[in-house]
Specification:
Strand content: 25-35%
Number of strands: 15
Order of helices and strands: EHEEEEEEEEEHEEEEEHHHH
Number of domains: 2
Helix content: 40-55%
Radius of gyration: 26 Å
Largest sheet: 6 strands, antiparallel
């Protein structure tokens, strides 16, 4: 829960400071779950990663690496990843927001984040990060220490109070899960895509039915806000477990298929070694027909190896 701010009256329209945000949380106008005072800034709230980092180009969850206490993934050149935030947010009918990249993210080469939070929003957030460069970029997701895993923050949500409340219904898909579900259903039936669909379904199951805080009269929102916090505190704990299991399964599938690739490579090397020995014998005996045949077999084996490598990289790596 947010610390109590020093404000004693409702903030006026405009940017909300840390004290304004605390007042709004205490008075049922903003909810963030899970909430950490460490992520509250002077003019917003820093949002953190989960393991859910989906590559638009490869249509797969990014593989997580661990090294020297850091957990990270790579974003390929000209790729965009969709990040599901650890935090879920609800705002009332006269509060909106905007997302801004943290300098540490942009300085690594990632593009700026530019999107909005509509009034009456409820749920986790799906934020896109793109790599507009020609090189592979490393994205640090979390740090692991004796005290446990701490997820890094990558974007700041700035809140505004509007001069008047909106009268339009909230039509954005809840946490954009429906968008991901449609992507998942369009994928081929592979281990990784099946795991992705399972993750999306579990998140959708835990989000349904919506708490729908905004539908309650203002004086009766307290109970729904408690339901909102309980639900998304639990989802934040469970979701990373779901995703970690699927990512591990995907990594095992990658290792298995790399082993297949190495097996084929060794077979081709063995075949070409035999071809070389026969070629030497044909040269010694001056058998030009045999040399021509062996050259064709050698070229064909290299073609098969190149074809297998392309399929392997496209499907598994």
């Amino acid at each position: 829960m947010a610390k109590s701010g020093r404000l004693t009256q409702r903030p006026v329209p405009g940017f909300l400071s840390d004290q304004d945000i605390q007042w709004c949380i205490q008075n049922g106008e903003i909810a963030i779950a899970p909430f950490s005072n460490d992520q509250l800034t002077s003019v917003g709230y820093n949002l953190s990663f989960t393991w859910f980092i989906f590559s638009v180009n490869s249509q797969e969850l990014c593989r997580i690496h661990r090294e020297s206490g850091q957990l990270y993934c790579f974003v390929e050149p000209n790729d965009t990843v969709l990040v599901l935030t650890r935090e879920a947010v609800w705002v009332c009918e006269d509060i909106a927001g905007a997302f801004h990249s943290k300098v540490g993210i942009v300085s690594k080469g990632f593009g700026h984040i530019s999107t909005t939070l509509d009034p009456n929003w409820e749920g986790p957030l799906l934020i896109s990060l793109n790599n507009p460069t020609r090189k592979r970029l490393r994205l640090t997701i979390a740090k692991d220490s004796n005290s446990g895993i701490r997820f890094e923050t990558f974007a700041t949500l700035i809140f505004f109070r509007m001069a008047s409340p909106t009268t339009l219904a909230q039509d954005n898909l809840q946490s954009r899960i429906e968008i991901l579900r449609e992507i998942g259903e369009g994928l081929a039936n592979s281990r990784k895509s099946a795991g992705l669909v399972r993750i999306i379904q579990k998140i959708r199951d835990q989000e349904s039915p919506r708490v729908n805080v905004s539908a309650a009269p203002v004086a009766q929102r307290g109970e729904r806000l408690e339901q909102f916090r309980d639900r998304y505190d639990r989802l934040a704990k469970d979701m990373n477990g779901y995703i970690a299991d699927v990512v591990r399964a995907g990594n095992m599938a990658t290792l298995e298929n790399r082993a297949k690739y190495v097996g084929v490579l060794l077979a081709v090397v063995g075949l070409n070694g035999g071809i070389l020995w026969l070629a030497i014998q044909a040269y010694v005996t001056n058998n030009s027909n045999m040399l021509a045949l062996l050259a064709m077999i050698f070229a064909f084996s290299l073609y098969l190896l190149e074809l297998f490598e392309k399929v392997s990289r496209k499907k598994w790596l």
